[in-house]
Design a protein that fits this description.
Length: 259
């Protein structure tokens, strides 16, 4: 779906930023890059900063006006670091991503543009007025302007997150998930019960718990452990700590007399 979203860079002066934008796009699954009147392109700095996103650079479309870049788009979003004092609907990148994905979903052939301005002066008022919505990354007001490629990264990331969310895909790395699942064989109520018995016994042995004056200790501990879901691996650790505690205080095994 994100194949129908294009990034438009207007009058970029540093080719390194074009490469950086291409890389940011490819990382997040965007491929259509349109350059409006770039000051230096192609350029070795662009290729170097793209570091592997060469296909995005190779397929780049170069045009001379913003109109050519956005003519066939049904939704045009212009990014701006500053409040230009023209009253216009402003959204943050997350809201923008939501709107873009909505439009892509309802219209099969919708083409959408995200427009980025010059490094030194951004987009002109006239260019911003060609955009239906303005996107502002909520940066610090006294230092609001991000590097061009970094701004592309933020918007591309929000689009990817929104895309993953909508297709029901996980936003977490597969490897992490698998590890979690393996560790996540949870203990049974019986195992928890044996643990509480063991724990109470050790707490008595070390003199922390007096069954004659229980002071709600065991219910409180039950409530504490109840708040976390303990898995097999964790239970082995907890039982191991209790057993080693008993060894340390000289309780070798059940039934054995204390020194
Ligand atoms: N001095 C310029 C800054 C341009 S930064 C200005 O005042 O507009 C280059 C481009 O990066 C901007 O045109 C915009 O496309 C993007 N950008 C930088 N910071 C941004 C922010 N906080 N929100 C949205 N876009 C931003």
């Amino acid at each position: 779906m994100l194949g129908r979203v294009r990034v438009v860079l207007v009058n970029t002066s540093h080719p390194g930023n074009i490469g950086g934008a291409a890389r940011a796009m490819k990382n997040m699954g965007l491929h259509q890059l349109v350059l409006v009147d770039p000051q230096r392109f192609p350029d070795d700095n662009a290729t170097a900063r793209a570091s592997g996103a060469d296909d995005v650079l190779r397929d780049v479309r170069i045009v001379s006006t913003l109109e050519e870049a956005i003519g066939d788009c049904v939704l045009v979003m212009g990014t701006s670091a500053r409040d230009r004092r023209i009253p216009w609907p402003v959204v943050d990148p997350r809201e923008a991503a939501d709107m873009v994905l909505d439009q892509l979903a309802v219209q099969d052939d919708a083409q959408i543009a995200l427009v980025f301005g010059r490094e030194d002066s951004g987009l002109t008022t006239e260019e911003l007025q060609r955009c239906q919505f303005h996107v502002h990354i909520p940066s610090m007001p006294d230092f609001s302007s991000l590097n061009l490629a970094a701004a592309v990264q933020v918007l591309a990331y929000e689009l990817r997150m929104q895309g993953l969310l909508r297709e029901g895909s996980s936003t977490k790395m597969h490897k992490l998930e698998t590890t979690n699942r393996q560790a996540n064989v949870l203990v049974t109520a019986d195992e928890m019960e044996r643990y509480f018995q063991h724990l109470e016994q050790v707490l008595i042995e070390i003199g922390f718990h007096d069954p004659q004056k229980p002071r709600q200790l065991m219910p409180r501990l039950r409530r504490l452990y109840g708040r976390v879901q303990i898995d097999q691996v964790e239970m082995n650790i907890l039982r191991g700590i209790l057993t080693e505690t008993q060894k340390a205080i000289g309780v070798q095994a059940a039934g054995e007399r204390r020194r």
